[in-house]
Amino acid sequence: MTWLIFSFLSAFTFSVVTVMDKVIISKHVSSAKVFILGLGITQTAMGFYVFPWLISHYPLIPSLIAVLSGIVCGIYLIIMFMAMESHDVSRLIPVVSTYPIFVAFLSYVFLGESIGVYVWLSIILTVSGAVMVSLGPSQSGRPSTSMLLMVLLFFASMCFGLSQFLAKIIVDDMELWPQFMLRGLGVGIASFFVIFFPGVKTGFIQLVKTPKSFLLFFFSEGVLAFAAIAFFYFAIYAGEVYLVSTVMSSRPVFVFFLGIILSLPFIKILSERLEGKALYIRAIGTFITVAGVSGVALL
User: Fold this and answer.
1) How far is CA 110 from CA 116, 128, 227, 242, in A?
2) Other C-beta atoms within 10 Å of 184: how many?
3) 298: which residues sit within 8 A by CB, 6+ positions away?
4) What phi-psi label fits residue 86: left (phi over 0), alpha (psi between -120 and 50 degrees) or beta?
5) DSSP output for 129-194
6) What is the dihedral of CA 279, 282, 283, 284, to 10 degrees?
7) What is the reported pLDDT for 143?
């Protein structure tokens, strides 16, 4: 059950990163594009933390797949962070956490992984609960997810699922840390385009020159994100990717509870609206998500 432990660790750590990123985007950078540029730089540098160049085995095709995995993951991150600039984080994360169905389908078709009926039902239950957590009124009391945004978020979710699938298909051909490095390079390639938008370079320089903001950003994207991604790779190198992705889709539950805590009046770091019907629906969604993940873990 090593894969299960690492999957939960990754989901929890990613939830902390997500909430911290929302705070940074809202209060410490001039725009989401500035954050995305910093993300690209950090992700590119992150791969060199563990000196992967000391490992000489870099087969061409798996290396290209690892970079592609990073690029599609970068697309997912860009869409999510651009949406996070103006929407409640607890509404966005559940929608982009619907990727396990896509991963399971790819695993079944291309990897020949055996997926029983009860596991399929657990996957659908998990995703359904995650989507329920995202329902309810926004901070303004009005629905905040347009049809276009929903389509973009589901596309982002598919990109994240594809990224996980691509990472899994090369585990027998490439060691963990080289793949980790090349994935970071791919995320950087996808993210660097924002540097051409007006004010992004100036905003990033301002971020670096502001010690409190930069330290918070580095702790989130340079330390916690490193741990979360490493936990994910430990999980897929130890277990089936569709199981890992399903357990990791429990992230909305952690984000939900963190959002409640950080939105309390005496803390007020976030401004998530969690009252009445919204809280009721999200609580039910949380229970369903936990039930679905438990089904995957026990079957």
Assistant:
1) 16, 25, 29, 12
2) 28
3) none
4) alpha
5) HHHHHT-S--TTSS----HHHHHHHHHHHHHHHHHHHHHHHTTTTS-HHHHHHHHHHHHHHHHGGG
6) 130
7) 47
Length of the chain: 299
Q: How many CB atoms lie within 10 A of CB 128?
A: 15
| pLDDT mean for each 10 residues of the chain (299 residues) | 92 94 92 95 81 69 95 96 83 80 84 80 81 58 62 90 94 90 93 92 95 96 94 93 85 82 79 67 77 70
Q: Residue 128 corresponds to which tokens in the numbers above?
A: 């359904």
Distance CA 174, CA 196 (A): 34
Q: How far apart are CA 157 and CA 96, in angstroms?
A: 4
Question: In angstroms, rounded to a whole number, what is the distance separating the alpha carbons of residues 259 and 264?
Answer: 9
**Spatial distance between the Cα atoms of 164 and 66, rounded to a whole number of angstroms:** 10
